[in-house]
Amino acid sequence: MSLRYLLRVSYDGSRYPEMAKGNTKIGVVDLLEKIISYSLSNDYSLRARCFPSSRTDAGVHAINNAIMVQVPLENDLSCNKKDFLKKWNFLIDSINPNSMKVLDFNEVVHGFSNRHHVSYRIYTYRLAIAKNFEIYENFKNSPSIVCMSEMNYSWILPPGFDTGKAQEACNMFKGCHNFASYYKHPERQRRKEISGNKPFQNTERNILLANVGIGKEKVFENDLYDYVNISIVSRSFIREQIRRMLSIIVAYSYGRIKMSTIKYLFDNPKPSNFYDMKIHVAPPNGLFLTDVVYDPQMYLKPIPHYTTMLDFYKWKNELNSWTYEDSDGETHFF
């Protein structure tokens, strides 16, 4: 048996090579697993298994992401919540100072899914609009300290951004649409899924909110940039959807594309459209996962009950390790 907790975590995406577990082995989730495990045993065994609700791209930041952690039954975290939070954040700052913070956690029962029980997700994209072309050229040739403070946390753009047109583009995204044109789905992956007889991901999504608002500076008050925040809310998103939406919103605001292009991308939903039309994807550095919202009643009384990957992991005290039995009956160790 095991215990599960839903962590609330903020992190600076510019300080990690990746968020989810991948090739580098030193991403956000990797570090979380290791510091939580170390706090439970001090023997470097990997006692914690973490699974994020939202897998943000490399370079994307989070103000409040949700990550599920599973620990052995004997490691009850709730009895010393304050102490665990203090120790985890101390360990994080000792390894990668000010890069991540565990904000809170709640116990959840088996049957709760940190992905399927999400009510909605909120993303915010920061734009810094240079007030004149000299400022914009200096950003590329001789960046100021203001620019240096913004470059990892916003998309710095030349003057001419039209907030009214940006909102017109945002309005086109609201409601239910097929977002296949905004889906990063490489040809090689599509061929692999076809050969494996696997169904393609459902690309229909419902955008609850897409609004243009006033932003603010990251660190220094200045008269170099105007700041714009674009907020997008939906229950779920497909891979790179928001960054591709931002590409279109920004291009339309500068008059580089027409409304007919936005309509075409919806009327002809194909992942290859961005590549075929030579549309550049917005950089990750301006994107922030602001919040992942749940109904707290689902934590202890989930409706419906879901089976997750965590259900297949079993802690073996005699081995000091998690085990996983695959569909062929073969046992794997972690």
TrEMBL record:
<dbReference type="GO" id="GO:0031119">
    <property type="term" value="P:tRNA pseudouridine synthesis"/>
</dbReference>
<dbReference type="InterPro" id="IPR020103">
    <property type="entry name" value="PsdUridine_synth_cat_dom_sf"/>
</dbReference>
<dbReference type="InterPro" id="IPR020097">
    <property type="entry name" value="PsdUridine_synth_TruA_a/b_dom"/>
</dbReference>
<dbReference type="GO" id="GO:0003723">
    <property type="term" value="F:RNA binding"/>
</dbReference>
<comment type="similarity">
    <text>Belongs to the tRNA pseudouridine synthase TruA family.</text>
</comment>
<dbReference type="InterPro" id="IPR020095">
    <property type="entry name" value="PsdUridine_synth_TruA_C"/>
</dbReference>
<feature type="domain" description="Pseudouridine synthase I TruA alpha/beta">
    <location>
        <begin position="169"/>
        <end position="295"/>
    </location>
</feature>
<dbReference type="InterPro" id="IPR020094">
    <property type="entry name" value="TruA/RsuA/RluB/E/F_N"/>
</dbReference>
<dbReference type="InterPro" id="IPR001406">
    <property type="entry name" value="PsdUridine_synth_TruA"/>
</dbReference>
<keyword id="KW-0413">Isomerase</keyword>
<keyword id="KW-0819">tRNA processing</keyword>
<dbReference type="GO" id="GO:0160147">
    <property type="term" value="F:tRNA pseudouridine(38-40) synthase activity"/>
</dbReference>
<dbReference type="Pfam" id="PF01416">
    <property type="entry name" value="PseudoU_synth_1"/>
</dbReference>
<protein>
    <recommendedName>
        <fullName>tRNA pseudouridine synthase</fullName>
        <ecNumber>5.4.99.12</ecNumber>
    </recommendedName>
</protein>
